[in-house]
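Subgroup meeting minutes
Present: P.N., E.W., G.H.
Scribe: E.W.

1. P.N. recapped why we're keeping a running log of single-chain structure predictions: easier to compare across weeks, and new members can see raw inputs and outputs side by side.
2. G.H. added today's entry (399 aa).
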Amino acid sequence: MSDTHHLHPADSPPGRLPIVLSLGVVQTLGWGSTYYLPAILAVPIAEDLGLSTGNVFGAFSLALVLSGLLGPMIGRRIDHRGGRPVLVMSSVLFALGLLLLSQAVGPVTLWLAWLVIGVGMAMGLYEAAFSTLAGIYGSNARNAITGITLIAGFASTICWPITAGLESTLGWRGACLVWAAAHLVIGLPLNRLVLPRMKKTRTVLIEEGSTPKAQGKGGLTMALLAFVFAVTWFTSTAMAAHLPRLLQESGLPLATAVLVAGLVGPAQVGARFLEYALLQRFHPLLSARMASLTHPLGVVCVLALGSPVAALFTVLHGAGNGILTIAKGTLPLAIFGPQDYGLRQGWLMMPARVSQAFAPVLFAVLIDRFGLHALLLSAALGCLAFIALMFIKPVLNKS
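Output recorded in log:
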């Protein structure tokens, strides 16, 4: 046993439900106005500025890479000071970045705006929220992590139509301004007023998973988890960018492909509810292992049978992706404990942010060349993720 600093709420925190609801709403806003923005606005932005859509997506990819590089530093700050000030600042940076984006006149100002948004993403998306919850609830944060992903799982379902409606009535610049205002009017107050202030106290490390010895044993496990997160984020981002096209390659007409692709959101949320209701009693490794195989299973079905099982493929992909998103928060918590959770989360997600930045471009090339059989790559990655998860022990921290 040894002494260390530990975070505790400076005041009596609100109940778990207000915090989960608040973070769920803020995460929905954060994802919908940044990560899911280019899917709707990339073409009008490119046309207005006289650029290629590749230039717009390149700026977006840079934001993802930057958010990954900043992850460890942001995570360490949350470990030491709690997530409240970091999430409050993320609302300000999101608003500033979207304001700058609305005023872009060329590639330089476009890329500058996305750099600011990228810093906001490092401070305000799932990794920061998960680390904040770990700081508040410690090893008991699993339910809260699942809860915010249940709400934010509807980010694309809610925000894509809103962004499309804003673009059609106010133009893409007006849409960016409305989202910027939403961060100041909705996100900032929720982060500022609902999340508890944290204070440091000196305590003794007695909780399993919090000992220095336990933390020194996990180099291989860290590498395996980083690999799992990188390949699953690659597949998730590739499917987010190209799923309607892949469904067309299976034989569906465009309108039907778009409709079927919309099943991803409900499948994600349904799987997360299953995790919340039934799988909480088991180690999160079990649900992660099961989830890593759903996409490969769907690929086998759609390659063998084509369009008649396109909906099944979509649901299997969405369900697996939904649970693996939770696993990114719950697996490190269950294996290593809450000590230094934010820093560890930052390092674990750095390769994932880089891999997802290149996923849309790489997968587009593969579809151009191999059509539907491009899915063999994502299926192989899912199988490798399953193998990596099988090498991870459910309890790392017992001596």
